[in-house]
Description:
It is a single chain. By secondary structure, the protein is an alpha+beta fold. 16% of the residues lie in helices and 30% in strands. It folds into 3 domains: 5-56, no CATH class; 78-123 and 165-465, Alpha-Beta Barrel (TIM Barrel); 126-163, no CATH class. Helix 1 (97-106) links the parallel strand 4 and strand 5. The model is unreliable at 1-68 (pLDDT under 50).
Amino acid sequence: MRRIVLMRESLANKNVASPEWVIDRRPAYCHAPSSPMKYSKPCSSRRPRLLLATATATAASLIFLAGSNLGLAADGPRWWKGNLHTHSLWSDGDDYPEMIVEWYREHGYHFLALSDHNIVLEGQKWIDATNNAGGVRGLERYVNRFGPDWVEQRRVADKTQVRLKPLGEFRHLFEEPGRFLLMAGEEITDRHLTAPVHINATNLRDFIPAQGGSNVLEVMQNNVRAVLAQRERTGQPMIPHLNHPNFVWGITAEELMRVQGERFFEVYNGHPEVRNQGDAHHASTERMWDIVLTWRLAVLGMEPMFGLATDDSHNYHVQAVGKSNTGRGWVMVRAPFLTPEHLIRALEAGDFYASSGIVLKDLKRAGDTLAIEVEPETGVSYTTQFIGTRRGFDQTNEPRRNAAGEAMRVTHRYSDEVGEVLAEVRGTSASYALKGDELYVRAKIISTKTKANPYVEGEVEVAWTQPLIPAKHPVKP
């Protein structure tokens, strides 16, 4: 076990046992004598806490045994895996936040944002102990894992209630420098008429109510401005991102491209009802991305938009197609340190990729070259598509119409020159050198591996890089 031992000098007798403070990397709940928990993994990999031990002191000594480097990245930036869209019993998820956080930590994630609907995880919140989305089974698993001393219950009007722990009470059980980080989040859940408008705020400090607006674009803009205003007011780095644009067909590319200050959206969301792939009348989220990038860079003179992959996890007891499960989509962020400041800085620089399963060994997105190298799996083949739009593209677009000839409120039809495949490479390594006429180029890596527990049947594992913007062709002012 990694630990730091601080030995204190005994003034009375150097040969008499005196107190010794040990920083133990197990969570506090591992030490509850009455806890019935059974551990499948050693507790020693968890968050430090101080234990008062007894040892034989020596004269005024300070000893460090196998000290941790606190996760400092002496060798430069590294990849951090994280999910930015997660729900719990604080809103419409079906498990307790501690159970959810533990799953992510134990499955190789480095950071997680808890983003329940129109609420932040703070203050007092009691729920019916059995009549909730997790039910009896969820409560039993929670008590078995964390113990009756941790799980707070009470009787109110002949019903048992359980208290949901706020983030500030449980984060210390899991966080560890250089290994795991929790960030406060909120899914600001708004709408215009029947169109849902959901925007996540990551690493926010204070609750943000839904802002409303007179149309979909205004609703998006008002909520993004609220997040950015809090960032400006507090000095705390935080980012908004647009969730699942095809959920109930809520957002069009024409609306999304015009949101000032919005730099991120979900190109992949693991919820089964979000329709990432679109349909005959609706553009896929990838098609929307290319339209937004093209118009922002060539017409509107705005910053590029980056694509995220998230779980949008709600269901933690049954893993199946049709459920909103963990482990479907994530981002890999390259940063020197695992802190909110460094992660957000890297995200805003586009130094990350989104994935539904593929791991990249290397990614270079600088100068005039976009290059990737896949961490290969045995028996799996890979194809990389370099996708972009060239300058002078055909800007023709027209609304889609229903059977009666009426324009539909959906993303327009655009020329095939918007977001075309500029090159395709088979194998685990691929690169693209800019020719000089591209507005942007992004890479999509497609595997032949069928995704375990997909959000739709037949899904294969994919990764998406962020767009490379030619330095010698700056964005239109």
